[in-house]
Amino acid sequence: MPERSKTRPRDANELAHSVFLESIGEAEKTDPPKPKNPNAVALGRLGGLKGGAARAAALSSKKRSQIAAKAAAKRWEKKP
């Protein structure tokens, strides 16, 4: 997935100002993102990998079927 270099403001006036600064070459320089803590990344990944499997093992097949039916009904319901 491509990284986004920066986000633009939502306010129309701020957006116009930032576009103007970019056009004349005086856009604000942003600092590069801080590197992530590899230990924290490993812990988060560990929990994420076992979370879905643990939840599936805890649910009965009837309950999983009910959850899936509810999700399907929500996906296919008519929007106003």
Which short descriptors sum up this protein?
80 residues; mainly alpha; single chain; flat
Written account of the structure:
This protein has 80 residues and is mainly alpha-helical. It has a domain at 53-80. Helix content is 62%, strand content 0%. It contains three helices and no strands. The protein has helices spanning 12-24, 38-58, 61-76. The longest helix is centred in the middle third of the chain and has 21 residues, at 38-58.
Q: Topology, please?
A:
Layout: H1 12-24, H2 38-58, H3 61-76
User: How many β-strand stretches?
Assistant: 0
What string gives the helices and strands in order?
HHH
* N→C terminal distance: 33 Å
The level of helicity is 55-70%
Q: Concise description?
A:
This protein is mainly α. It has helices at 12-24, 38-58, 61-76.
